Amino acid sequence: FFEIGHLDKLKSWLSWSWTYICAVWFAMVLTMIYVLRSPLKLQDTLTSASVFLNTLTPKFYVALTGTSSLISGLILIFEWWYFRKYGTSFIEQVSVSHLRPLLGGVESSSTTGLFSSVNGEAEPRPSVSECKVWRNPLNLFRGAEYSRYTWVTGKEPLTYYDMNLSAQDHQTFFTGDTQQIKAEDTVMQKAWRERNPQARIRAAYQAIEMNHECAAAYVLLAEEEATTITEAERLFKQALRSGKREQRVQDPVTTGKDINLLVYIKRRLAMCARKLGRIKEAVKMMRDLMKEFPLLGMLNIHENLLEALLELQAYADVQAVLAKYDDISLPKSATICYTSALLKARAVSEKFSPEAASRRGLSTAEMNAVEAIHRAVEFNPHVPKYLLEMKSLILPPEHILKRGDSEAVAYAFFHLQHWKRAEGALNLLHCTWEGTFRIIPYPLEKGHLFYPYPGCTETADRELLPTFHEVSVYPKKELPFFILFTAGLCSFTAMLAMLTHQFPELMGVFVKAFFSTLFTPLGFFADKMESFMPSSFWHQLTRI
């Protein structure tokens, strides 16, 4: 251990002194060049170079500066495109990934220590679950909704990454908990992995031919082949009947997969009833499902229930559900936080006036509503722009990232109508939501009611959301240095090209004056060195 400690100290000392060693070496090289200027005939070389440059016509300098401006402009366009698409500078990314290892830099492998608690001690930041992708509780039907959007617009609303996650979910949820895999289960495992929708549908029909009671195959047909919600509901009912018959004949040890399948089918049937206007029936189905399977809280069925209750305007029931799930020990979501804010805003928003509030101050109820809005905005700052229709909505993805833009799209897509129904709620949100950012002076460094906002949401959201959607970024990133540098270089060289073309003689005089001023300190430094050192020393050093 003693030897290892000395070795670490030696390495740290070498890395610390490397910068100074390089500076000394560079100074020695400059000194040697100056000393050996006579044997190397540097003066003659500089004279001939200056004569050559003086013989060049102004057209050459116009072409030189114009080409520099064109090249820097092309670099600027590429850098801007890369920044808009990936959120970072290409030059900076290449420099960090390739040059830093060569220079001995080490990237930090942990963010612990960057975030401090109030007493100054390091506060560990959660890195495993903060960027975990979750199944969207309110995801749409592919055949009846996503495909219809594609037929009308010609755009794909789902990314391959999102659909691949769904395939993995279906494989794990429907076929992963059985000890004896049947032939139709093997076919369905391959069906979920198929990239082509028609291939998936053909595989589902193949599984039904093997076993007419294959519930997973009917689920796939309901999700992908059915072009209407009514047709999807019919297929889900067929899947439910088949699943119950299969469950009755199965050994109890091997029914875990079938229970998962039945829960999924009942949930989708409740969503079909909600979409077809049978909202009370949907609410009853969801309550029964939550009562029958209370341990499946990770499926977030309560978010489906909250949305249906808001549609019924059963605000007392909504408050009862929030009282159970808006607990400090349970994971939060945009639905929980913003629904709580909506209920408190609804109580005061009808009579709320910014002018009156500024004169008399906020009442207790209004203060509670504003604090609830600030809490919701801190959890997910992307939602207000969609609720206030400052950004256009798209179809929500099948998976969401909590606190990310994908969750904001999914929430606003289903809950915007509920905010509009509460008179004045959107006005109160518009007047107060930006005040959240005054409570959090630096979001990536410090949180107020939640953990600091994760920095990985942008990358994950770009994978989940389609390319035609402009991903919301928080906090707003500043332009990278290299974009500003190339923009300045392009403008400067273009201006030089124009001035050289219009005023060639004047620019020649200006350039000569500029370089003479630039090299004046070097000449002064050389004269001082010659006066300081004896001439015999320079003579002996030159002879060596």
TrEMBL record:
Membrane disposition? Multi-pass membrane protein
Q: Tell me, in one coarse class, where this protein mainly resides.
A: membrane
Q: Which domain of life is it from?
A: Eukaryota
Q: Which residues cross the membrane?
A: 12-36, 60-83, 479-500, 506-526
Keywords, ordered alphabetically = Membrane, Transmembrane, Transmembrane helix
Which GO cellular component terms are attached? Answer: membrane
Short name of one Pfam family for this protein? ST7
- InterPro entries from the UniProt entry: ST7 (IPR007311), TPR-like_helical_dom_sf (IPR011990)
Question: Gene3D superfamilies, alphabetically?
Answer: Tetratricopeptide repeat domain (1.25.40.10)
Give compartment(s).
Membrane
Q: Which PANTHER family match?
A: SUPPRESSION OF TUMORIGENICITY 7 (PTHR12745), SUPPRESSOR OF TUMORIGENICITY 7 PROTEIN-LIKE (PTHR12745:SF11)
What's the family? Belongs to the ST7 family.
Q: What is this protein called?
A: Suppression of tumorigenicity 7 like
